[in-house]
Write a structure and sequence with these properties.
The chain is mainly β and 498 residues long. It is built from 2 helices and 34 strands.
């Protein structure tokens, strides 16, 4: 699959260098307006919060207890207070010269924020007023991280692929070892050599979790392992013109099947039975596409690039039959599939500007050209069956809104702040009632706010009452080259527990 040329290994992407100038301009343009907006909005928001807000109108219910190896699905509730405080902070040291460190994923449990970082996984304790840079644990991998699952099981396990023997930079050997880790303890549970994966590289390999199965695909093969034991369940080799090029997991397992010549491939999407690899249904995608992404397996949603290196349409499918339900134009929208800082890592199963629920898909719009008079952007909720827009959540002046994750029938939204007055916020939005519930109000560090708030450059998570912001690419600070670089920061409620 073509994702365009990867960025130079030792060059910071140019757009990141321009963002501080834009933020300073916006601060100057919006300073007066921001004071008025912030006072009014924060006051109303806190009164609303203390009055109970819209919680009695919420459409979600408490989730049933999940099996230990099921993919975690939590429903968040408002914290005791929306006032935020730091609960995790880690600064990465030892970056010298033009060195970069890749951190392709961040996970969170109730106790730990964990990061896959270069040749190791690190866990940081979640606690009020943490000791800076105090690690709970470190798991050395003996090689560079090649591919990661962004999913976590109900009992806080996940899986990664490693390039054994290479602890410097990626792209030197085969990504042919898979392991699972307990994110609460940092304990490696099992590790297996993936046979015949000599062609598995950092740019063509992915790993997904679903229903007690770890599924791996690379350029000319695939394999699946039992999540508990590490026993191999099934595998394929490319013996024809078609092969499984990537998987998307979660509540189901989808395969992106690539056929024909690499210069002009054709694609189809297949739903697989996770423990056998047998095909349940097939959907053939139109020819002539640049790239295809699978942002959701359950319900099945496909993002396609038709005629340009950007997502032009979303295609929704019937989860039982694979028949097309709707095509949703992405004209004016920015689902952010792939990603600049992740260009070395296969990101077929994640689009950072959208979130998919059981009957809605939420997509962020492109930024407005008029930054002084109009909201920065908005999020639209589309009906998965009909493809029609059914609700819209608008940002504010100088405050972009980013879809973080679904929350039952609701959407958790991160609202950025690009001035020194208005706080950033994590809020819950009910698209059926258009009610907004504040979860956390806070400020990110000014020098890092632009990059941490950008879903293309950083992981933005909200899990069990905590918001996390983590860079995926760590580079030396050119102004202060000896200083550690902020890697991840987490925010929780400052309210007392009763």
């Amino acid at each position: 699959m073509s994702f365009g040329p990867p960025p130079p290994m030792y060059t910071q992407p140019a757009p990141a260098e321009d963002r501080p100038r834009a933020r300073r301009l916006r601060r100057v343009l919006g300073a007066v307006a921001a004071v008025v907006i912030a006072v009014v909005c924060l006051g109303v928001g806190l009164l609303w919060y203390n009055a109970g807000g819209p919680t009695k109108e919420r459409t979600d219910t408490a989730t049933a207890r999940q099996a230990a190896d099921a993919i975690r699905r939590t429903v968040e509730k408002p914290p005791v207070s929306p006032e935020g405080q730091v609960v995790v902070q880690h600064n990465e040291s030892g970056l010298t010269g033009r060195q970069q460190r890749f951190a392709p994923v961040t996970w969170a449990t109730p106790k730990i924020a964990a990061r896959a970082l270069a040749d190791r996984i690190e866990g940081y304790q979640i606690e009020p007023n943490p000791d800076w840079d105090a690690k709970a644990w470190t798991l050395q991998l003996g090689g560079h991280v090649c591919a990661v699952s962004r999913d976590v099981t109900a009992d806080d396990r996940t899986a990664v692929l490693v390039e054994p023997g290479n602890i410097n930079s990626p792209q030197q050997g085969a990504c042919d070892e898979v392991l699972t880790v307990d994110l609460d303890t940092g304990k490696k549970l099992w590790q297996q050599k993936v046979p015949e994966a000599r062609a598995a590289s950092i740019t063509s390999t992915n790993v997904s979790l679903t229903q007690g199965v770890v599924a791996i695909a690379w350029v000319d093969g695939s394999a699946a392992y039992d999540m508990d034991s590490g026993k191999r369940l099934w595998g394929t080799r490319s013996t024809s013109q078609c092969h499984d090029s990537a998987y998307a997991g979660g509540g189901a397992l989808l395969a992106l099947v690539k056929c024909g010549d690499s210069s002009d491939p054709t694609y189809r999407v297949e739903k697989l039975e996770p423990r056998t690899g047998k095909t349940v249904w097939r959907y053939s995608v139109s020819n002539g596409l640049k790239s295809i992404y699978l942002p959701s397996a359950d319900p099945p949603v496909i993002a396609v690039e038709a005629g340009d290196y950007r997502v032009t349409d979303l295609i929704t499918l019937n989860p039982k039959t694979g028949e097309r339900l709707a095509t949703i134009s992405m004209d004016g929208y920015d689902p952010k599939c792939g990603g600049n800082a992740e260009a070395f890592f296969e990101a077929v199963d994640k689009c950072y500007g959208m979130a998919v629920g059981h009957d809605r898909v939420f997509v962020m719009s492109k930024d407005t050209d008029d930054v002084t008079r109009k909201p920065e952007n908005h999020i639209t909720a589309f009906d998965l069956e009909k493809g029609t827009a059914v609700a819209k959540f608008a940002g504010r002046l100088f405050q972009r809104v980013v879809p973080v994750r679904v929350n039952g029938d609701d959407l958790i939204v991160f609202r950025t702040s690009e001035d020194d007055v208005q706080p950033a916020a994590v809020v819950d939005w009910n698209p059926r009632t258009d009610k907004e519930t504040p979860y956390l109000l806070f400020h990110l560090p000014e020098d890092d706010e632009g990059e941490l708030s950008d879903p293309e450059q950083s992981d933005i998570l909200y899990e069990q009452g905590h918001a996390f912001f983590a860079r995926r690419l760590l580079t030396r600070d050119l102004v202060h080259p000896r200083n550690p670089v902020l890697s991840v920061i987490g925010v929780g409620t400052a309210g007392l527990k009763h």
